[in-house]
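Chain A, query sequence.
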Amino acid sequence: MSRLVYVLNGPNLNLLGKRQPHIYGHETLADVEAQCRALGEELGLEIRFHQSNREYEIIDWIHEARETAGGIVINPAAFTHYSVAILDALNTFDHPVMEVHISNVHKREEFRHHSFVSGRADGVIAGFGTQGYLLALRRVAKLIDDKAG
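Chain A, predicted structure.
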């Protein structure tokens, strides 16, 4: 199985470190990418790291991952709560999917408590800050290793 993992980030995550640091912290998305790449190297994973404020781009990356990747780590951000299109795209992907949220969405506004993506995710990590990405990568690597077996 491919050791390529797509790390996909939804809307407004390009403002990480600037937007509501009391909720999302002070690390930037570039910091998160650097941490993911460093851990990926340690785990023998190739990382493709993307962010978009456009739903269709995330869907296109999921479609691309179908042909090349062994796993997806996705922080769909606001798309979590209403994107059936992202759920449908993820349902076409036959390998591990980990859903990540920096904040604990269950301690926030009621509308954030529902995730369409969770219906497909093999695991959900919320409230661990940006460390959630690293936890998700470790889990994807383990699942890839187990499947290769």
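DSSP finds five helices and five strands in the chain. The chain has one domain: 4-148.
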